C-alpha cells in the first residue's frame, strides 16, 4: 500500500445473497488520507454498496478491502475500519439515539470509554463545527430536517474518525439545508478529515478533490470535478445532470465572455465576469 493511503480496494466485487449479478465488480480504488472524493452514479449503480465496504458493514465476495493497512476480512480489519470510518446515511432518524441534542452527540464518545472531560470537549467541538452549538439542550424532536442531518454528522465526527462517509446524506434536505451541510463538510475537510460523498448531484462535487463515476457496479470514470464537467454525452449516459453553473459557464465561453478552458468554481466565474 502506498504511503498516505487510508483505504484501498483491490479487485473488489460484491454480490448480495440470491442476486443474479454483482452489485459492484472489479473495483480498484485508493483513497488518500485527507482527500475529499465523490462517488457518483444513478440509482442502482452500486454507490451505497461500495460505501458500506469502507467501514466493513459489507465484506467483499471477491477481492480485498484494506483500511489503515488492515484487510477487513479479519477481525482486526473490521475493528480498524469501524474506528477509522464513520458513516452518515440518507435518513438521520435512523442514527439519532437520544432525546436531547448534546446527549445524542455524546453517545459515540461514551461507547469509546473516554473520560468525561474528553467527552464534553468532543461534544462541544462537534456541535460547534456542525452549526448546532446553541442547540445543545434542545430536544431532538424540535429540530428541522436539516438540523437533524447536521446532528447525525455531529454524532459521527464526535468519535474523531479519520474518515467520514456521507451516503446520499443530502437527499432529504432542501437547497438551503444542502448548502449548510456542504459548508460543514468544507470545514471538516479544511481540518484534514478524509471525506467520501456518495451522491447523484453534480452540484455537490464542486469542492471535492476527485470523483469517480459508477455505472453498472463498475468504475466508469475517475478524475477531477472540472474534468468531469467537460464531458458531454457520457454524463447523460450515466444518468447525471450538469449543474446550472456549468451550463452558464459553457454559454459564456461560447459568447466569448469567458476564456476559461475548464469549468471554474463559482467564485472564479464571478471574479472573471467582474473584471
Q: H/E order of the elements?
A: EEEHEEHEHHHEHEEEHHHH
- In the CATH classification, which architecture of the largest domain applies? 3-Layer(aba) Sandwich
**How is the biggest beta sheet arranged?**
6 strands, mixed
Q: Judging from the principal axes of the Cα atoms, what is the shape?
A: globular
Q: Find the structural class using helix and strand composition.
A: alpha/beta
- Return the CATH topology of the largest domain: Rossmann fold
What CATH first level of the largest domain would be assigned?
A: Alpha Beta
Mean pLDDT across every amino acid position: 88
Count of domain modules = 2
Distance between the termini: 46 Å
Classified in CATH, the superfamily of the largest domain is P-loop containing nucleotide triphosphate hydrolases
Q: Give the strand content.
A: 15-25%
List how many beta strands DSSP finds.
10
Which runs of at least 5 residues are low in confidence (pLDDT < 50)? none
Which percent bin holds the helix content?
A: 25-40%
How do the strands line up in the largest sheet? 6-7-8-3-9-10
Query: Helix count?
Result: 10
Rounded radius of gyration (Å):
20 Å
Keywords for this structure?
275 residues; alpha/beta; Rossmann fold; 2 domains; 6-stranded mixed sheet; 4-stranded antiparallel sheet; 21% strand
Amino acid at each position: 500500500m502506498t504511503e498516505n493511503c487510508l483505504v484501498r480496494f483491490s479487485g473488489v466485487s460484491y454480490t448480495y445473497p440470491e442476486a443474479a449479478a454483482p452489485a459492484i465488480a472489479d473495483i480498484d480504488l485508493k483513497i488518500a488520507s485527507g482527500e475529499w472524493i465523490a462517488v457518483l452514479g444513478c440509482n442502482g449503480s452500486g454507490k451505497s454498496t461500495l460505501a458500506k465496504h469502507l467501514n466493513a458493514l459489507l465484506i467483499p465476495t471477491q477481492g480485498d478491502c484494506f483500511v489503515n493497512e488492515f484487510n477487513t476480512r479479519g477481525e482486526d480489519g473490521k475493528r480498524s475500519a469501524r474506528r477509522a470510518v464513520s458513516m452518515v446515511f440518507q435518513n438521520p432518524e435512523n442514527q439519532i439515539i437520544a432525546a436531547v441534542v448534546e446527549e445524542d452527540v455524546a453517545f459515540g464518545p461514551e461507547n469509546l470509554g473516554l473520560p468525561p472531560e474528553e467527552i464534553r470537549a468532543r461534544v462541544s467541538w462537534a456541535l460547534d463545527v456542525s452549526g448546532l452549538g446553541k442547540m445543545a439542550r434542545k430536544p431532538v424532536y424540535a429540530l428541522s430536517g436539516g438540523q437533524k442531518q447536521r446532528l447525525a454528522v455531529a454524532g459521527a465526527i464526535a468519535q474523531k474518525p479519520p474518515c467520514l462517509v456521507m451516503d446520499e446524506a443530502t437527499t432529504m434536505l432542501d437547497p438551503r439545508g444542502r448548502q449548510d451541510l456542504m459548508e460543514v463538510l468544507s470545514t471538516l475537510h479544511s481540518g484534514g478529515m478524509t471525506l467520501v460523498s456518495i451522491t447523484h448531484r453534480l452540484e455537490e462535487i464542486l469542492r471535492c478533490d476527485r470523483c469517480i463515476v459508477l455505472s453498472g457496479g463498475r468504475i466508469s470514470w475517475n478524475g477531477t470535478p472540472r474534468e468531469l464537467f467537460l464531458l458531454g454525452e457520457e454524463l447523460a449516459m450515466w444518468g447525471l445532470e450538469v449543474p446550472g453553473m456549468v451550463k452558464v459557464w459553457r454559454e459564456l465561453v461560447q459568447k466569448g465572455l469567458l476564456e476559461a478552458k475548464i469549468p471554474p468554481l463559482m467564485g472564479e466565474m464571478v471574479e472573471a465576469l467582474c473584471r
